[in-house]
Amino acid sequence: MTERACVVFDQHLTEYNFGLSHPMAPVRIDLTMALAREIGIVDELDVVGATPATDDELSLVHSATYIEKVHKLSDHPTYTDPSIGLGTEDNPVFAHMHEASALIAGASVEAARRVWTGAAPRAVNVSGGLHHAMPGTASGFCIYNDVALAIRWLLDNGAQRVAYVDVDAHHGDGVQQMFWNDPRVLTISIHEGPQTLFPGTGFSTETGGEGAEGSAVNMPLPPGTSDAGWLRAFHAVVPALVREFKPDILVTQHGCDSHMDDPLTNLMLSVDGQRASYLALRDLAGEVCGGKWVATGGGGYAVMDVVPRAWAHLLAIVAGSPLDPSTLTPERWRARIEEMRGSPGPLRMTDGRAVGYRAWEQGYDPASWLDRSIQATRMAAFPLNGLDPQP
């Protein structure tokens, strides 16, 4: 196996574009890759292209009827079909929508193929992570579910167990739904609680379907949770479950909308806390599945100050060369942002936050909403996976 990881990217992956007023602006991908290039991260990675997922491939996770309707709307972007979630405020129809969506799906499949075949030890597709798309509907800015398709490809090509960890501020509902009854896939989602954020699912009691009990794990967090609380929850739930599951490969979704500056969510993480989560998942992949790790992007709507820095850190960690958080951002990159909005981009790759947390083993506080949420998840999921839920 080569020791050089890869990023799946070409400029066509920025053509997933719902329009100028939409929060999911494709410039976030462009600025991420520009920052990574100028810092030198991309030099540490093999940059590989992708081909669009075919209709037959997409039909592994989506209904044929849905794919056909996406094609028709893509060819006639003045039409809408709210019955499949397209033509709504969240998911406007746009020209060449099918082609752009299928390319992102194909890019995540290519990342999975590279890692599974040994062509790369780790791979990342920052344009991916469209985790809300359902078998027959678009949802939450997501048309085709690229991460679910990548997982399906892995299962169809010899993987016996796949662990999926989703750290987006929103519940990874589409991926959970697609593998609800499949005990070969462990889905873990850490997200803002459904009482305060779309899609309104992801309660700790959602634990998997018949024959796959315990294969879905949900860690809903109180609004306002910051780095220390988020990392406390992560380490109290994720490592033990992934170790017990013993996956062949780890697939992760890294929506960075958990940041305190994100306009759509109510979590309060810093870039430093998000970077800590990436390092923890890298280490977990190294421990449980020989380092086999496929990472994707996801949400993130502070598109100039947050997303590029967070995902540049992700790219560097996938490359095997984590950046010092105090690294200066390149002057030319800051100037580009200033030209776009009238004020320069952030000076450093850090928000200046010290990252630490109190380990779960140090004690449970029943007066804490966060601790009650952690304990509810452990009580719901741990016994189903043969683990003791008590601290």
UniProtKB/TrEMBL annotation:
Translocase in keyword set: no
UniProt keyword terms in alphabetical order: Acetoin catabolism
Keyword Methyltransferase: no
Single GO biological process annotation from the record: epigenetic regulation of gene expression
A Pfam family this chain is assigned to: Hist_deacetyl
Superkingdom assignment: Bacteria
Domain Histone deacetylase: 22-316
A Gene Ontology molecular function term of the record: histone deacetylase activity
InterPro entries referenced in this protein's UniProt entry, alphabetically: AcuC, HDACs, His_deacetylse_dom, His_deacetylse_dom_sf, Ureohydrolase_dom_sf
Metabolic or biological pathway: Ketone degradation; acetoin degradation
Membrane-spanning residues: none
Family the entry assigns: Belongs to the histone deacetylase family.
Identification of the protein by name: Acetoin utilization protein AcuC
Organism: Aeromicrobium ginsengisoli
UniProt lineage: Bacteria, Bacillati, Actinomycetota, Actinomycetes, Propionibacteriales
